[in-house]
Amino acid sequence: MLSKPATLLLGIIYEKPLNAYEITKLLDYMNIKWWFNVADSTVYTTLKNLEKRGLIEGTIERIGNMPDRTIYTLTDKGGGELKETIRESILQFSFDTNIFTIAAFVMNILETEEKKELLEKRLNILQSYLAGISKQDNEVWKKEAPDFHVANLERMIDIVQAEISGTKRLLSVIGEGKNNEE
Q1: Average pLDDT taken over every residue of the chain
Q2: N or C: which end of the chain has fewer CB within 10 A?
Q3: Taking the CA of residue 130 as centre, how many other CA atoms within 13 Å lie in the half-sphere pointing to its CB?
Q4: 44 vs 40: CA distance, rounded Å
Q5: CB distance 51 to 104 below 8 Å
Q6: Rg of the chain's alpha carbons, rounded to an integer?
Q7: How far is 157 from 155, CA to CA, in rounded Å?
Q8: CA-CA-CA-CA torsion sign (118, 99, 12, 2)
C-alpha cells in the first residue's frame, strides 16, 4: 500500500502531468494543508522515490530560456498501485481519517460501479464497527468507567458516525452521476 503523500501525488498526476513546483502550488491552491499538511520537501522527495520505483516517469522539458523542468506522468505500474491503494483505503477503517480522505479525493481513477461497490462495503464495515463499539456505551459501564474513558468512547462513536455520514454523501454523489468518470 502506498503512503498517504504518494497516494495523493499519484492521484494528482493521474489527473494531469505536472512538475514538482506545479504540484506544490496546486496543493496550496486547494488548501489541502488544512486537512493533510504535505511539506514541499515531502513532495520533491516522494516524487523522486515514486520515479525510482517506476510508478511515475519524468520527462525533462525546456521552455525558452527557463531552467529545465521535469514533468511527471503516471506509469501503468503506478496506476495499478494507486488503484489498489484506493481500494484498500476505502475498505479499512482507521481513526486516522486522512487515509480515507485521500483515497476519496483521488478515487475518480476508479470506474463508477467499482466506487459504488467499495463505498457500500465501507458503509457496512463502518456500521458494524459502530454497532460493536456502541455495545460498550451503556449506563452500567458509564458509572464504573472514569469520565475520561466515557468521553473518549463517545468521541470514537462521533468519528465513526461522521465517517458513515461522509460515506453516504459520496454514495449520493455517485448516484447523481455528477463528475464520476473521466
Answers
A1: 94
A2: C
A3: 15
A4: 7
A5: no
A6: 20
A7: 5
A8: negative
Handedness of CA 62, 9, 113, 85 (dihedral sign): positive
Q: Measuring CA to CA, which residue among 102, 90, 150, 87 is closest to residue 126?
A: 90
Query: Whole-model pTM?
Result: 0.89
Q: Is residue 141 a contact partner of residue 168, using CB atoms and an 8 Å limit?
A: no
In whole angstroms, give the CA distance from residue 106 to residue 118: 14
- DSSP per-residue codes, the chain: ---HHHHHHHHHHHHS-B-HHHHHHHHHHTTGGGTS---HHHHHHHHHHHHHTTSEEEEEE--TTSPPEEEEEE-HHHHHHHHHHHHHHHT---S-THHHHHHHHHGGGS-HHHHHHHHHHHHHHHHHHHHHHHTT-SHHHHHHS-HHHHHHHHHHHHHHHHHHHHHHHHHHHHHHTSS---
Give pLDDT tens digits for 162-182. 999 999 999 999 988 655 444
CA 84, distance to chain mean position in Å, is 12
Q: For 61-99, what is each residue's pLDDT tens digit?
A: 988 888 899 999 999 999 999 999 999 999 999 999 999
Is the Cα torsion angle 36, 41, 44, 46 positive or negative in sign? negative
User: What's the CA gap between 61 and 67, in Å, rounded?
Assistant: 9
